[in-house]
Amino acid sequence: MSKQDLHGSVNLEYYRVFCSVCECGGITAAAEALCISQPAVSPAVRQLETALGCRLFLRTSRGVKLTSEGELLLSYVRRGIDAIQDGETMLRRMKDLETGEIRIGASDMTLQFYLLPYLEQFHEQYPNIKVTVSNGPTPETLEALYQGHIDFGIVSTPFETKQAVKSLPVQEIRNVFIAGPKYAAQLKGRKLSYKELLNCWSAIPVRAALWMSFWQSAGFGWSRSLNWPPVR
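RESULT FIELD:
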């Protein structure tokens, strides 16, 4: 039997039975500890011995005794079962939000005006959960999401996502144009059309990808410059 065949043929439940027999010192005690019938324990041990090609126990008048092969196997099986139980415990704690980590991507605006109050509330309710926030513009946040570097992102519209990503509106944030003294008197209280905005010089951050998409969707061209009017 090859090593690959051996791994595929041995039922992991046999190892749990094997470990219980070792700890309890006998078939009957192991059956009681596992809450199964005694006739179910002996076949499990025999199946494991057959699959491994060696005897694991010596039957005595007082119960069972490990062979040298059994002692060797027990040291590994016990660590494996302990690791599985630890994994189950940690998974349960993670599902109950008792431990774990949440990775969030957010821009300066969404972090300051939306996310921060929720982070404070979450930390008070789940103090053992580690929260990591990556700061970056919307395109970088979306790319981090695609790469699996964050669990979710808080971004600003407009944006385009891949089909595998689900988006959910959470809050409306209004952007405001700020005018200097030269324009304050003539623009205050007025609603401007896109055409009127074309005649107003504006300063926009170079990495304002959202503004690029916004103006381009409105039919305007874009120049990556701090000072511009957009040109059709």
